[in-house]
Specification:
The complex is a heterodimer of chains A (129) and B (183).
Chain A lengths: L2 H109 L4 H13 L1
Chain B lengths: L2 H28 L2 H19 L4 H35 L19 H4 L4 H13 L2 H12 L4 H8 L3 H19 L5
Helix pairs in contact in B: 1-2, 1-3, 1-6, 2-3, 3-7, 5-8, 6-8, 7-8
Classes of the chains: A mainly alpha (129), B mainly alpha (183).
């Protein structure tokens, strides 16, 4: 038997067998096909549901998280302002301290009798006799 | 009729046109109808879910490839299962019967037994089953489904040269086995 005869006979037998079984398996084939087509039909709907669920989750997260973030940002900003104010206060305090030091120096001179007004009196007295 | 309904109707027609041979291809490898139907359903679902929006002209090669992959996966799982059975029998566990030998696996032969050609069909069935999986699938795609070498290569994910080699060896083995029974 050559290859062509073998293939031809095999094909005829397989086809005949398939036809004989077609009726027997018709219900199972229909069920199998229906399951596949239902899956194809359900797929876009399922995808839509997942998209909607994802979008809802994003919105919910935004609603829940954003105020917290804003509050946090405001808090940070407030802290920064307070910190800046504190620096400013420190600078003011330093300036004040310097000023006070200067005043102390002036007072020191005053205490030593170098008060300009007093000297003027003495000089006036000396010069005026 | 909406576009989607039309597409599903087309797909239904396509699946109907290929289901019988697809089932038989899976049966030759699995040796039983239930596993073959599982493979067929998986392949159909995969096609319907992932490729139903493709050009219907692409469905045939896509389905052939998906089915081939599913059959191949089944074969791999069986190998693993056999390895585990071997290991368990070596360690003294209860022996497990070979699933391919079960009577249920041969149910589909019963209708054929009523035909005059039952003997020849039995011999052909047994001879095809004894082929290595690749030779078996190449023979069925080329000889039964009428695919050419290029289409068979695409469906199986192998080279055209490999298809020719497997087909030639399959024919040689079948001829050697069936020679005495087939005039």
């Amino acid at each position: 038997m050559n290859d062509d005869d073998l293939v031809k006979q095999a094909r005829e037998l397989l086809d005949a067998e398939q036809s004989a079984r077609a009726h027997e398996l018709a219900a199972r084939f229909a069920h199998t096909r229906r399951a596949a087509l239902d899956a194809a039909d359900a797929e876009p709907a399922t995808e839509r549901v997942w998209w909607l669920a994802g979008a809802a989750a994003c919105v919910l997260a935004a609603v829940l998280v954003m105020p917290g973030l804003q509050e946090g940002a405001g808090r940070d900003k407030g802290e920064a302002m307070i910190s800046q104010q504190a620096v400013s206060n420190d600078e003011s305090a330093a300036e004040l301290a310097e000023l006070l030091d200067s005043l102390d120096l002036l007072l020191f001179f005053d205490e030593e009798g170098l008060d300009s007004s007093g000297q003027d009196d003495v000089l006036d007295d000396e010069w005026l006799g | 009729m909406s576009d989607q309904a039309a597409a599903i109707s087309d797909l239904n027609g396509f699946l109907k046109s290929v289901e019988a041979r697809a089932l038989r291809r899976a049966e030759f490898t699995t040796g039983n109808t239930d596993d073959a139907f599982d493979i067929l359903q998986d392949a159909m679902i995969q096609l319907a879910q992932k490729y139903s929006d493709r050009d219907p002209a692409e469905w045939a090669p896509l389905f052939a490839r998906i089915l081939q992959n599913r059959i191949h996966d089944w074969g791999r799982r069986q190998k693993l299962r056999r390895a585990l059975y071997w290991f368990s029998s070596k360690t003294g566990n209860e022996e497990v019967s070979e699933p391919l030998d079960s009577a249920a696996g041969r149910q589909y032969l019963e209708p054929v037994a009523a035909q005059q050609t039952a003997g020849a069909m039995r011999q052909l069935d047994a001879a095809i089953r004894r082929l290595p999986q690749r030779q078996q699938q190449v023979f069925l795609l080329r000889a039964w489904e009428g695919m050419d070498t290029a289409a068979t290569a695409a469906a199986m994910g192998v080279s055209a040269g490999s298809v020719k080699t497997h087909y030639s060896r399959a024919l040689e083995k079948l001829r050697a086995e069936l020679g005495d029974y087939w005039p």
